[in-house]
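In the lab's daily routine, each protein ends up as an entry in a very long ledger. A line of letters takes care of the sequence, but it says nothing directly about the fold. The three-dimensional part falls to structure tokens, numbers that each stand for a local backbone shape. The outcome of that step, for a single protein, is printed below.
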Amino acid sequence: HFHSGAPASRREVELLGEWLNSVLADNIENNENPLDIVTNAQHWFSVAFNELVRQVSITCAERGRLFACIWKRNQDLFQKLIKRPNYIPRKRIYIKMSQRSNSIFEN
């Protein structure tokens, strides 16, 4: 698990990124339904982002609150988007995205 009371070390951040890459890849490989892929990915993004917010908040509470606010607004917008009747994500879009970058740390 990622939780500790100390600011995150570089290695902890790398481990979080590796974990996120792994669960996202498994999600794409193990799901056929595009909506399930997106819903599951949003869950894993939330887990990772909440951990980053916690880590940042240890050093700067205001920055952590701003990150949390931005993420909540992003999630709210995403939920509105997927509730639109004509929104049908395509699995190939997510496969292309994963092929572009095998790691969230690549530029």
Q: What stands out?
A: The mean pLDDT is 79. The CA atoms of residues 6 and 76 lie 30 Å apart. Residues 34-59 form the longest helix (26 residues). The chain has four helices and no strands.
